[in-house]
Amino acid sequence: MSWGRTGLATSVVALLLIRWYPSVGGIVFVPVIIALIGAGLIQLSQRRRYTVQAAGIANENVASDFWAVFWMTVMSVLIATSGVIAMWAA
User: Fold this and answer.
1) Are 40 and 26 in contact (CB under 8 A)?
2) Residue 82: exposed, middle, or buried by beta-carbon count in 10 A (0-12, 13-18, 19+)?
């Protein structure tokens, strides 16, 4: 999985959510902040993940990064849930 593109896509989601501001109000910034923090954390942890994966490729033994996928899933669910709540509360 390309984590750079994932972080960029998450940032784009945050920017698209800002378009909801006129119809939803300030609560829309909750999923925006979650998305931007998630994108920032993806970029900050990218070097460590790539170092581990490169060593795994060199040793011909690459393990999947369970926690990276887990936290990405948690972030996606939080963005979606807070977006639905924002639309419902409007």
Assistant:
1) no
2) buried
